[in-house]
């Protein structure tokens, strides 16, 4: 935001401020009028690293587009007014001339100034110009982002460029985000333009007001603060005002509730009586936040900080120490491997604080290092059945499961480690049992309590430093400066070793706190030797004939099927790993997770039988901080989480005192509340305990799909599948016949399919080109000839849309019941219906329909 002649210029960053933090917009407006001093630009090595990677990604895209289509580059104009005007005119001239791609486009219109990474004027697949109905060339904005997912802020930014193009008379059809991992997100411009226009009007409304310095001069902490120039300014203001955000574990919505009740400072909260508790805040939450505020006040000048054990339950869950215990920490670089990330260092110390480092500087080395780490844990568990692996915060557990899925290796070993409760997150133990007079519970804030004179020092003192120094080391290595690279890697190694040692000493400090608390570790046994499941054994047999590289199409098809045999198992393991991880984490931490709905002030009806023959059921109602959309993500039958003392039919997991119940009959949500109907197990009289939270429902049962894939694998090993249509599809073989080209698409495709000998014919085309029309006519024609045809897709809506057209053409069509009034037949037992049919017919269903044994036999 700045003065431009007699008008104001605003940028996408100003529009984003409406979404991210309107206080920033007010500060920028005030600073532009000289009412507030802009903060100095400090050096931030991590931010500079992000910028460097972003520029590298942008240039890689530039090279790709330049080689494919040619690119017109607009010179960067800086802040000179005439140069800005010239750059805007040069961009419009490039569009008028039909440039295929415009780089660093300057969009200057009605006070808006935006620098679009690219304006795309051609179709990427064909190279043909993008034109409107009148034949005028269109342009679609492209923004390159390091992120691996399309964020709302990124979509709003590219929508701002689309809005500018509309006002320049070149309405785009789509907007593009090209992400750091190579993925491309394409969104219809009509879906995002209304938001850009609404937020643009709010910026203009701010500019139309008299500039004033906002009161207070600082804003609330938000996720966007990390990239804001005003973050230190606001942080200093919050600290001077003793704002509630200084209370460790305080969330934004809790701050809003407390302020609404007249509590706005740490001191006010600490001294508040129960009569000031917000009606929407649970009693446990209120007590926890007040106690934390009070301890921070009393320990403000204490060194080391004050601490107290407020709940011995978490300490009691700590397993007894064992000579085989290990302490684990990972260093990762999110920018490595073209933005896909790399876990480049795994560190482990034992009880004697002997350190072992496992390095990885490439994706292949990452796999090898991961395997070494898991093998180390597995061997240690075999030698010491009561050992555990300790870490701080969830990153290490999450990284292990991610690496197992990424590299499709050591999955069962990781699964066994988790099932046995080997991995213990000490952060969860601290948050559940110990209160400390610090504003943060990072391990570095706790170290004064147990590290004494060995508090960390050195060049690398935090994770951000380690990423920057690792990137510098990689750059030195690539330039042949090996000595400099080795020095930086040694500093990172020392940092990682310190983290492992710190975790070890934190563990023993926590053990010392429970000296008066009886230990109740979960019983562990030596894991039995794992017997690989049938699908895994079948996959191994298939892979025996497949080389690692230089595969023929047939070998690649075999490898694809072998990988598919384990897909459902791998996919479900990821869910269960996340599920049990949630049970181990503090409830206060789960409140910030989108996939969890925490229940506040729950109440329940008495257990009763809805019908004389049904199990007992009850209705639980509770307040939440969630919208109906948030609750809907959980599914209709989510897990219900209970804490101690658990209902009699539930058992805690190996390293958690919480458990989940699956008997949900129905779930209804309104804004800020839920109603859950629970069903008790057969023979149960119900229980009095009330649930704590809801977590996502289990993934669907995939047994039939796995069995169907297994049958295909057995066919392949038996030599009976080389000519099968599914194998031809995997090999991407073209149809073994010349395709008719008479101009009648229906007749041509019908004849081509009829001439196939177990091959596959692909029909493709963009939306609106008649695929449904042609497909329905081809299917009906073949059914009338006596063919038995299956129609499948990923959604019932797509299937039913096509089936309705086929029914209109007179074919015999069936699909299992889904909704009343369907135009097709809806047999209760589809396989029996198929047995009774004479002549041709059509059956529709998802993969689950065709994978059932009785159906796939046809």
Explain this structure:
- This protein has 858 residues and is α+β, with helices and mostly antiparallel strands.
- Helix content is 43%, strand content 14%.
- It contains 31 helices and 26 strands.
- The strands form 7 sheets. Strands 3-4-5-6-7-8 form a 6-stranded mixed β-sheet, sandwiched between helices. Strands 12-11-10-13-14 form a 5-stranded mixed β-sheet.
- Helix 1 (12-20) packs across helix 2 and helix 27 (771-784) crosses helix 28 (796-808).
- The longest helix is centred in the middle third of the chain and has 32 residues, at 482-513.
- The model is unreliable at 518-530 (pLDDT under 50).
Which descriptors would you attach to this protein?
about 850 residues; alpha+beta
Summarize the structure.
By secondary structure, the chain is an alpha+beta fold.
Q: Count of DSSP helices?
A: 31
Largest sheet: 6 strands, mixed
Shape: globular
Radius of gyration: 31 Å
- Percent range of helical residues: 40-55%
Classification by helices and strands = alpha+beta
**Ends apart, CA distance between termini:** 68 Å
Weakly predicted, low-confidence segments: 518-530
- What value does the average pLDDT take? 89
Strand content: 5-15%
Question: How many β strands by DSSP?
Answer: 26
Question: Which strands sit side by side, in order, in the main sheet?
Answer: 3-4-5-6-7-8
Write the layout of secondary structure elements.
Elements: E1 2-4, E2 7-9, H1 12-20, H2 22-32, H3 45-68, E3 72-73, H4 81-96, E4 101-109, E5 112-120, E6 140-144, H5 152-167, E7 174-178, E8 184-188, H6 189-207, H7 231-240, H8 252-260, H9 266-270, H10 283-298, E9 307-309, H11 313-317, E10 326-333, E11 342-350, E12 355-359, H12 363-383, E13 389-391, H13 395-407, H14 411-419, E14 423-425, H15 426-433, E15 434-436, H16 443-446, H17 463-478, H18 482-513, H19 534-543, H20 553-565, H21 567-584, H22 587-590, E16 597-598, E17 600-604, E18 617-623, H23 628-632, E19 639-642, E20 659-661, E21 664-670, E22 673-679, E23 693-695, H24 703-717, H25 725-731, H26 745-755, H27 771-784, E24 788-791, H28 796-808, E25 813-815, H29 830-836, E26 841-844, H30 847-851, H31 853-856
Parallel strand pairs: 3-4, 6-7, 10-13, 13-14, 24-26, 25-26
Antiparallel strand pairs: 1-2, 4-5, 5-6, 7-8, 9-15, 10-11, 11-12, 16-23, 17-18, 18-22, 19-20, 19-23, 21-22
Helix pairs in contact: 1-2, 1-5, 1-6, 5-6, 13-21, 17-18, 19-20, 19-24, 20-24, 26-27, 27-28
